[in-house]
Amino acid sequence: MESASRRARIIIADDESIIRMDLREMLTHLGYDVVGEAADGRTAIELAQKLHPDLVVLDIKMPDMDGIEAAERLTQSRIAPVVLLTAYSEQNLIERAKRAGVSGYLVKPFRESELMPVIELALARFHDLQGLENEVEQLKDALETRKLIERAKGILMEVHGLKEAEAFNRMRRTSMDNRKSMREVAEAILLTHQVETRSS
């Protein structure tokens, strides 16, 4: 049975049409879906922005914009992971590729059997990275919410002479009664306090 990732949607970019044709055949044979083709990096980026593929395979040496520059833009905007193809295994290119955030690297000529491990690894790494970024965002959000709640609690304690537990319970009741999140309640308390402080 084919996994969902085996049917990943891929864009390929190489300035040599015969290589694109070979690559498309290999990828299709492996069960991937080639959704777009380009002859240069700039077109590859435009296609990726429009089609939102799961992966972009780019040749390094292309006119207008090379594969590494295109890869850098694609990885920075988190559109899709990038696998680079090259006929050159020069160290400085590999270093540039690493700095660009490339997920995989294949030296031409390569066999069909070499493609899948590189692609699957690139897809898995990108998926893991997205998961980590989401976790970081959630943690940052939770921390920010906690800070707001603490500040709002402090205001209630100061203004109404409440104990910490009482202030927190009042906020929780307001949250439940008005079907608002604790963050929204905290923000409302802070805003009200701000307005009252200014007008007094």
TrEMBL record:
The modification 4-aspartylphosphate is found at residue 59. One of its GO terms (molecular function) is RNA binding. One of its GO terms (biological process) is phosphorelay signal transduction system. Keywords: Phosphoprotein. Residues 9-123 form the Response regulatory domain. Residues 129-190 form the ANTAR domain. It holds the Pfam family ANTAR. This is Response regulator receiver and ANTAR domain protein. It comes from Sphaerobacter thermophilus (strain ATCC 49802 / DSM 20745 / KCCM 41009 / NCIMB 13125 / S 6022).
